[in-house]
Design a protein that fits this description.
Low-confidence stretches: none
CATH superfamily of the largest domain: Cupredoxins -  blue copper proteins
Distance between the termini: 85 Å
Number of domains: 2
Strand content: 35-45%
CATH architecture of the largest domain: Sandwich
CATH topology of the largest domain: Immunoglobulin-like
Radius of gyration: 28 Å
Largest sheet: 5 strands, mixed
Order of helices and strands: HEEEEEEEEE
Number of helices: 1
């Protein structure tokens, strides 16, 4: 066998291996992309499916002052500050705090709570801005 045909066969075999390698990596990239997209869609649908409860801040008070939620269920609190001025939603027991400017609506997601009563308050109006989340 001459060296030309051995070299040509070797190059051909190397090219075939490279093609297989490239195709395999492209399949891995496509699979990873699909898994990432699937996870993102699940996350979005899970967020959208959370029960939501509205809380309004107005004139230094929370309305309603008591929000009842199901125990052991994730939920979302949708807080709107109607003013005047900013207010902070804070709960030391739940380890949540968020400053909300006047005219802003913000959502806070809560992990499942054990049955009980959880206090929250407004840092900027501590005498009047107070409420509770009751998990039943």
């Amino acid at each position: 066998m001459n060296t030309f045909s051995v070299t040509a066969k070797t190059k051909h075999a190397t090219n075939q291996r490279m093609d297989i390698y490239k195709r395999t990596n492209m399949h891995k990239i496509h699979l990873a992309s699909l898994l990432l997209l699937g996870g993102l869609l699940l996350s979005i649908s899970a967020q959208a499916a959370l029960p939501a409860y509205k809380l309004t801040i107005k004139d230094g008070r929370f309305e309603p002052e008591t929000i009842t939620v199901p125990a052991r269920t994730r939920f979302k609190l949708v807080i709107t500050n109607q003013g005047p001025g900013p207010e902070e939603f804070e709960s030391k027991k739940l380890r949540k705090e968020s400053v909300i400017a006047e005219g802003v609506t913000r959502s806070i997601v809560f992990a499942p709570l054990k049955p009980g009563r959880y206090r929250f308050f407004g840092e900027f109006h501590p005498d009047t801005a107070e409420g509770h989340i009751v998990a039943k």
